[in-house]
Amino acid sequence: MAATLQAPPAAVERHQLYEDALAMLMGTLFIALGMLIYSKTMLLTGSTAGLALLLSYVTKVQFGIIFFAINLPFYWLAWKRLGWKFTARTFIAVALVTLFSRLTDQWVGFTHLDPVYATVVGSGLCGTGLLMLFRHRTGLGGVNILAIYLQERYGIRAGYFQLGVDLAILAGAFSVLAPDRLLLSVLGAGIVNLTLAINHKPGRYLGIS
């Protein structure tokens, strides 16, 4: 007996090109704004974005540049296992986050950001942005590619897998972040990944790109 039930082909609705484009635009804008909020309060998220953010704190190199460079090796896995369309969409999404993370810092300014508020809103924006991308079979490079592959191939929840990876990245930030910022970052990682785990269950969303 199959481990999961397959939806009838008639129940699957293919996304239109404009729907994929709009989801990619809004998703990457949300993520770029979430990353800006995190960077202004010295918080840390998980996944490849979190690793890039951590390296930007240490090296003072701009987040977008590091984020783009870290993702380059993961495109091979995306190409081989998830197809060229997924790889192309993911490459575009990473490029847009790289661009928007630079522009958002010019578009938005903060005179005060409460760290707890920044954690909830920043992680909420990132989680919602990732959900938009995942629903349109687009990753954000790195761990996202691996998470989507494991969910589609083995049924492992993308959110739960990413939560484990994120906690490992946060564990490596003890020497960089203040204890209160580290605890808030753990809370933020939970919000991001629970957003994905609750809303992106296998078989629940039947739209395809």
* Rg from Cα: 17 Å
Proportion of beta-strand residues: under 5%
Order of helices and strands: HHHHHHHHH
Number of strands: 0
Number of domains: 1
Question: What's the shape?
Answer: globular
Could you give a short account of the major beta sheet?
Answer: none
Helical proportion, percent range: over 70%
Kindly name the structural category.
mainly alpha
Pfam families: YitT_membrane (PF02588)
Subcellular location: Cell membrane
Membrane topology: Multi-pass membrane protein
Keywords: Cell membrane, Membrane, Transmembrane, Transmembrane helix
Question: How would you describe what is shown here?
Answer:
It is found in: Cell membrane. This is YitT family protein. The chain has 209 residues and is mainly alpha-helical. It has helices at residues 17-40, 47-59, 63-71, 75-82, 84-107, 115-135, 142-154, 158-171, 179-199.
